[in-house]
Amino acid sequence: MSDTAETTTPTADFSAMPPVKGGVTAYLTVDGAMKAVEFYKSALGAELAFAIPPDDSGRTMHVHLYINGSSVMLADPYPEYCAGPVEAPGGFNLSLQVTDTDAAFERAVAAGASVMMPPSDMFWGARYAQVRDPFGVVWAFNQPH
C-alpha cells in the first residue's frame, strides 16, 4: 500500500477542446482554480471555454478561459505532477489592452481585486492601472491615447 493519497483523474471529451487564442498563453497555477474562474468572469469579463471537471479531492487539472480576446489557462496545484509547491507570483503582470482603463479598473476592484496603482496618465501616452487579484496575480489595464 502506498503512503501517497491517490486521486482519480476526471475524464473529459478532449475532442471538444477550443482553439487557443493569442501568440503567448499564460498558464496560471492558483489555489482554487474554479473560484478563480468565477472571479475572472466578474472582474475581467472572462468567458469559460473549457474545464476538466474537478477530481475527487476538488482540484481542477485544466481550465481554459478567454479574457480580452486571448486565451488564459489555469489549474489547481498538482505537486505530484510538477516541481514543488506553488509560490506567490512575482516579477510580472498580465497586461490587458482596453478601451477604458478606468472602467476596467473599477470593475476589477468592485469584484475584489486590490489596488496596486490607480488609473493614471502615463509618460508613454497611455492611461494605465494595476490590480492584484485574490490569487496573487497582478493585472494591468493599458489604454492607449
Tell me the strand percentage band.
25-35%
Contiguous uncertain segments of 5+ residues: none
Give the topology string: H per helix, E per strand: EHEEEEHEEE
Structural class: alpha/beta
> What's the number of extended β-strand segments?
8
Largest sheet: 4 strands, mixed
- The percent of residues in helical segments reads 10-25%
- Molecular shape: globular
Strands of the widest sheet, in order across it, are 1-4-3-2
State the helix count.
2
Task: Give the CA-CA distance, first to last residue.
Answer: 63 Å
Protein described:
By secondary structure, the protein is an alpha/beta fold. Helix content is 16%, strand content 32%. The protein has 2 helices and 8 strands, in the order βαββββαβββ. It has helices at residues 33-44, 101-111; strands at residues 26-29, 47-51, 63-67, 70-75, 94-97, 114-121, 126-132, 138-144. It is globular and about 50 Å long.
How do the strands and helices of this protein lay out in sequence?
Blueprint: E1 26-29, H1 33-44, E2 47-51, E3 63-67, E4 70-75, E5 94-97, H2 101-111, E6 114-121, E7 126-132, E8 138-144
Parallel strand pairs: 1-4, 5-8
Antiparallel strand pairs: 2-3, 3-4, 6-7, 7-8
Helix pairs in contact: 1-2
